[in-house]
Amino acid sequence: MKSQIIEQLGQADILLPSLIAEGLAANDRIKVRLSALQAAAQHAQEPARPATDLHVECRAAGIAPAALATLIGGAHLAGNGRIAAPNLARLMKEINDDAATMVRAVSAGKPAEGETMSARLAAIRAAGLLEAVNEIEIAHVARLTGVTQDGADSLHRLVMDLHKALNRLATECAEEIVSGAHVFGLHPEDREPVESFMRGLNETRALKFNHPGLETTATRSGGRLLIQNDIGTTDAHVLVIAIKNNSVTVIHTDVHRARAKFFIALFDKFQVKWSGLDRHVAAGLGEDNAFFLVTGEFQAESASERNAFLAALGAALVFLIDWNKARKLLRTWVVKDDAVRILEWAARQRVGHRAFLELGGNELIGAAVRNAAPTRIGFGERLDQALGRSAAVDFLKTAMRVSTEALSAGRSVRLVRDQIEADLVMHLERVDSALLAIVLRQVGLARDVTGAIAHHIAELQAGRPSDSKRLAARAGQIERKADRIALEARKEAARLNAGPIIEQLVDRVEESVDELEQAAFIASLAPAGIDPVLLSALAELCAVATTATEAAASGLAAAVEVPEGRRADSEDALNAVTRLIDTEHAADERERDVTAKVFAGGFDVATSLSVLELARAVERATDRLAGFGHLLRRHIMTDLAA
Q1: How far apart are CA 178 and CA 248, in angstroms?
Q2: In sequence order, what are the beta bridge partners of 292?
Q3: Most buried by CB count within 10 Å: which residue of 228, 306, 349, 381?
Q4: Computed from CA positions of residues 437, 442, 447, 451, in that sequence, does the dihedral angle turn out positive or negative?
Q5: Helices H, strands E: what count in the chain?
């Protein structure tokens, strides 16, 4: 190579930009080749599983895919903890050469750093890890491709360090800065795609706040424009974009599979062919040491469509910074799928999660819980268990939005805490409203039983036959359904620590339904031919009871809206309570009227007893509803005073 001759002449600095470009291209190749080595080890140990397909990754890195496909598909165990594969010796030589190319580029720009890197590569070679042979120990594959946490060196760690060093060199020797990107060796037609990528990046860059990252370099190599971004501080977290005409190839490396899936999901508006999401976790190598190499191919119809995709790529990168940290935090409050949904919403709305983390994150939510709901949300209890899934997700979205708005505007953390706490209070009040809505279903069933009894009496008044057995059966079905609703309401109230009034409201309505079911049963047993005077008095009592159930329902419906701060609704609810109590007094009068008519009429025992018991059961139901009204008034006044 001419570059090597010039290096020997001591003029390597002249070729530094091209050496960096060669080093960055070697970085793309070596990552694919290490992935192929992992895939070969996995296939040798689990031959029944489909072999990993790296065709897209190979094309993106400028490697002929056929040889690697043959190597992976032909890998097999060779005994004594070793694997064998066709072309393995060639692969090991190419990995060695790629690493040497990267070291040479770093040495040209930073001799001292290059010397250190060269010594590390020499140590790996001396350990026999890069021998160009067709068999290799599985343990050696792990030592080459893994990134351990104990500080031990590996080829993969060396490659990551070389890549970072090359990116720093590219920045330092850039010919110019284009919209914030350090570029060198560009052709005139390269400026537009670089500017498009940086336009998207700069639109959201501020959302990283004080976190380092998002440095971008661009160069031309191998007939393609290459754009690289370091994203954040994670070693294996890098984005490389290769652009040739209107074709864009995205190479994204990530240690978190969930974050890689999240990244892919952000581009659902573009027809991108993604591959590699489930790659490079070889059995026995340790999942923690693996990384995911995700490749996307986008063939744009025009330059403007290509530029729109590049801008979307740039804008998305800030949402990858500290993503896993935010996901883990959110998972303490909601289930993991909802945690990802919240982060995706924050990205699409360009709210982000970095401000939320920077202002305290978990402590922001914890303080709101301690101050606003110490008895409603227990220690370690998830928000979705206390508020319901949808409300918990909405609350956490609000917390992220408020955090971003406040930090962007320089507002105080105290104000953020107050806003988040107020939003939690609002959601808790909505939980109470949801419980009242359950009670409203109970009241509706009470109205159904009252209506059935009134209809039965009206049929008797008109001289038409009425199915007494059907009346009793229907009332019994309704009463059992009301019991199930009451049980559901009590369980929810207990789980949400909703306070005693809600449960007492449930009790009163349940008791009213029980009394009405008993009234229906008695009505079904009443003898035929009841005197019209008695039927008229019973009809009037049933009309009052119907009015009571309707007043209870309208009062509840209005009370559900009171936490929203609607004064008119509070007035409607209190007026309904007043009507409810008035109907109880009216029911007393109607029941006494029935009693007086029975005693004055000289009727037979069966008629007298059935009419009296029917009237008393209906009147007791209105008594229970009056008690319900007093409780509802107390609940409304408590909300208004809050």
Answers
A1: 19
A2: 254
A3: 228
A4: positive
A5: 23, 11
User: pTM score, two decimals?
Assistant: 0.60
Closest CA to 23 of 106, 94, 95: 106
Query: DSSP strand E in 222-366: where?
Result: 224-229, 238-244, 247-254, 273-275, 292-299
CA torsion sign for 535, 537, 543, 545 is negative
List, in sequence order, every residue forming a beta bridge with 182; answer none if it has no partner. Answer: 177, 217
Q: Provide the 3-class DSSP secondary structure of residue 641.
A: helix
For 527-578, write each residue's pLDDT tens digit.
888 999 999 999 999 999 999 999 988 888 877 766 554 545 577 778 888 8
- Mean pLDDT, range 585-609, rounded to an integer: 92
Mean pLDDT of 263-287: 69
Q: Which residue has the tokens 């969930």?
A: 258
Give the DSSP letter string of 204-215. HGGGGTT-----
Q: How far is residue 278 from each of residues 217, 261, 287, 326, 339, measured CA to CA in Å?
A: 28, 10, 12, 23, 21
Summarised one tens digit per residue, pLDDT across range 217-255 is: 888 877 889 888 888 666 556 788 999 999 999 988 777
Rounded CA-CA distance 275/43 in Å is: 18
Determine the 3-state secondary structure of 463 from DSSP: coil
Is 501 strand, coil or helix?
helix
Is residue 243 classed as helix, strand or coil in its secondary structure? strand
Residue 123 to residue 405: CA distance in whole angstroms: 51
Which of these, 272, 278, 160, 170, lies nearest to 219 by C-alpha position? 170
Q: 395: how many CB neighbours lie within 10 A of its CB?
A: 23
Nearest C-alpha neighbor of 520 from the set 536, 538, 547:
538
